[in-house]
Write a structure and sequence with these properties.
The complex is a heterodimer of chains A (about 240) and B (about 425). With about 240 residues, chain A is α/β, with parallel strands linked by helices. Chain A has helices at about 50-60, 80-90, 110-120, 120-125, 130-140, 160-170, 190-205, 230, and strands at about 10-20, 30-35, 40-45, 65-70, 75, 95, 175-180, 210-215, 225-230. Chain A has eight helices and nine strands. In chain A, β4 (about 65-70) and β5 (about 75) form a beta hairpin. In chain A, α3 packs across α4, α3 runs parallel beside α6 (about 160-170) and α6 (about 160-170) runs parallel beside α7 (about 190-205). Helices cover about 50% and strands about 15% of the residues of chain B. Chain B starts with a helix and ends in a 6-residue tail after the last helix. Classes of the chains: A alpha/beta (about 240), B alpha+beta (about 425).
Chain lengths: ~240, ~425
């Protein structure tokens, strides 16, 4: 599907994209056409080593494709370079990793406020009701982290608590897209469910599109759409 | 600003290693500045070894040689000045005062100087300070001696203790002027000059102890007793050198020319300040070596800091990836590490400077009393301020190495968190 044919409601669009980490690398990601709609919740499945992290790196502009076009919220990020790309990522993406999402120093409120250092628009949105730190505390409270924890540093929290702080950080200032890279893999099953509940609820409240990658098929029913990364890849 | 705050928080998280790096820089900065202070103070103390004296006159010799034996009591004069010449110089209209100096004897390793009581009035050191007595006063009797602070301290002499002067500078048996012992009449306060290591007696006393001597050995047979000597009219025929003060500074050169062109006897007159500077230039190699060593110590401390930052980079890879994911530019990662190095160095420089002043304030009286070295407590000089700024700049520059590595890595790692 060529990019020009995509609907205006697309928040993320890949068109004829090719990328490899190193010249002549055995692994090469090639995606002919792929789009995510605004407000959609999407699960991208794939076994480890299938290029999920590479796909996310491309989507949020940590790396630029060798060829093709990637558009996010109407902007062609594959044309952006350097500082402009970093600024764009800061403004439009909230990113949650598998684990170790947080800086070991500073309080968890500091961690939640981190993206606002680099994203002016998100900062002004987060300051709408006053102090951004206030907004951070509100988000943390909604995610079940009581105020007694807010002054603590990340390493003193449980893994589950840390992942919820990461959600608050991803959502502060309402970015357009929340990208989650196997965010539940470090949690046990009970906590996984509770975590996903919170993530869906807060992403919806913030009006963010949720894109998650995982190798775990059991959570597929919760998403509006599930795709296999392998099916997106151009067949050689 | 936010980046500096991040750097501070990150440093606080690694405060033990950070503090050690700061400590190393602090100590090396203190050493560096301290060496500079001591160097400058030593130089000015040295230049102030003798002040208030306009000319030093001695037998024809090199300027430094004359200075060495007349002021520092190092080495010997080749010849003496006759009293005749000295009288002629004293009679010049430019001359305000002349103090004869007669050297050649010693007391247990300390030089004995024969002079006049005027010496205690006209000898000036450090900022034209006169000599002061901790006890007693100038010599009065023929066999009175005034000893310097080091002599008193090392030989544990008190007022009225007896002293036997040795002939010459070595200590050979049977070469003592033991027939005529002296009495300690005064002890001088510490000056940090060769005066501290000198036994002062009157010019007449030098004559008196040599009255039974001829050609460097004692005449055989029983000599004169001390009381017999007291009744003699002692007139020294020659002295080793003389300190001269002029009425007006402008006349110094006129008098110097007169002495240097004196016909009856080959003489030299030197300006002590100029000769002191000449002498200092001889030891300035050691001075430079000292500065180089302290600069090396400083360099080592900065290298230690860079090593510290480099070794933490591995464990901070995750930190860098997180920062990149929230939108930090590679440049920010670079700036983070450079400002970290800069902050460590700045803290080290500030603490090191503070420590220096603290040490100066605490140790200054002890150093002054012990070594006669007057350390000035004053704001850093222009040169020192430039050095301090240069150290901070060097610290930031040193941070470029780990910063560049982190920068390259953060580009290569992308969003994957490698552990």
């Amino acid at each position: 599907m060529p990019a020009s044919d995509a609907a205006d409601g697309d928040i993320l669009r890949f068109a004829d994209v090719a990328f490899s980490w190193r010249q002549g690398d055995a692994f090469r990601l090639e995606i002919e056409g792929f789009a995510v709609q605004r407000g959609e919740s999407l699960l991208i499945m794939g076994p480890s080593g299938s290029g999920k992290s590479t796909f996310l790196s491309l989507a949020c502009g940590i790396v630029s494709p060798e060829r093709g076009e990637i558009a996010v919220a109407g902007a062609t990020i594959s044309d952006l370079r350097g500082a402009a790309l970093d600024r764009f990522r800061a403004e439009h993406f909230g990113i949650i990793f598998q684990m170790f999402n947080l800086l070991p120093y500073g309080s968890i409120v500091d961690n939640v406020l981190l993206p606002l250092i680099f994203a002016r628009e998100r900062r002004s949105r987060a300051s709408y009701d006053g102090d951004p730190a206030e907004e951070a505390r509100r988000l943390l409270a909604r995610l079940g982290l009581e105020s007694a924890l807010h002054r603590r540093s990340a390493p003193t929290l449980s893994v589950g608590q840390q992942q919820r702080v990461a959600v608050a950080r991803a959502l502060i200032g309402s970015p357009a897209v929340v990208i989650a890279d196997e965010p539940t893999s470090a949690l046990d099953r009970d906590h996984q469910q509770a975590f996903l509940d919170l993530l869906f609820e807060e992403a919806e409240r913030a009006g963010a599109t949720l894109v998650m990658v995982s190798h775990d098929a059991t959570m597929a029913p919760r998403f509006q759409r599930t795709v296999e990364l392998g099916s997106l890849m151009r067949q050689n | 600003m936010a980046v500096v705050r991040l750097a501070l928080l990150s440093l606080w998280n690694r405060r033990l290693t950070g503090l050690l790096a700061i400590l190393a820089i602090t100590l090396s900065v203190t050493l560096f500045l301290g060496v500079e202070r001591v160097r400058i103070s030593a130089k000015s103390s040295f230049a102030d070894t003798i002040s208030g004296t306009d000319l030093i006159v001695g037998a024809r010799a090199g300027d430094v040689q004359l200075l060495l034996y007349s002021v520092f009591r190092i080495g010997n004069a080749t010849r003496n000045i006759t009293m005749q010449s000295l009288h002629e110089i004293s009679a010049r209209p430019e001359v305000a005062w002349v103090i004869p100096l007669s050297l050649g004897d010693s007391h247990r390793g300390f030089r004995v100087l024969g002079t006049t009581p005027d010496y205690f009035e006209h000898y000036r050191h450090r900022n034209r300070q006169p000599l002061t007595f901790t006890s007693g006063g100038p010599f009065d009797d023929l066999f009175d001696a005034v000893i310097g602070a080091d002599v008193a301290a090392q030989l544990e002499y008190r007022l009225d203790d007896p002293i036997v002067v040795q002939h010459g500078i070595g200590s050979l048996a049977g070469q003592d002027h033991d027939d005529m012992p002296f009495r300690v009449a005064g002890i001088l306060a510490k000056t940090g000059t060769p005066v501290d290591r000198t036994v002062h007696v009157s010019l007449e006393a030098i004559e008196a102890i040599h009255i039974d001597w001829q050609g460097g050995a004692r005449k055989p047979g029983p000599g004169l007793s001390a009381d017999q000597v007291r009744n003699l009219r002692l007139r020294p025929a020659a002295v080793t050198a003389a300190m001269v003060g002029v009425n007006s500074k402008i006349e110094t050169f006129t008098l110097q020319r007169f002495v240097n062109e004196y016909r009856q006897e080959p003489l030299t007159a030197i300006l002590p300040g100029v000769a002191l500077q000449e002498l200092w230039s001889l030891v300035s190699v050691a001075e430079t070596a000292l500065s180089v060593v302290s600069a090396m110590v400083l360099l080592t401390a900065l290298l230690g800091m860079v090593t510290m930052i480099l070794t933490t980079l591995n464990e901070r890879r995750r930190e860098m990836a997180i920062l990149r994911s929230v939108g930090a530019r590679p440049r920010t990662v670079f700036g983070l590490l450079v400002s970290e190095a800069g902050l460590l160095t700045l803290a080290g420089v500030a603490l090191g400077t503070g420590l220096l002043y603290l040490l100066l304030a605490v140790l200054r009286p002890a150093i002054d009393a012990r070594f006669g070295l007057h350390l000035a407590i004053e704001a850093p000089s222009g040169g020192e301020a430039i050095s301090l700024v240069a150290i901070v700049a060097a610290g930031c520059l040193a941070g470029f190495l780990p910063a560049w590595r982190a920068y390259r890595r953060s580009l290569a790692d992308g969003m994957t968190i490698r552990l």
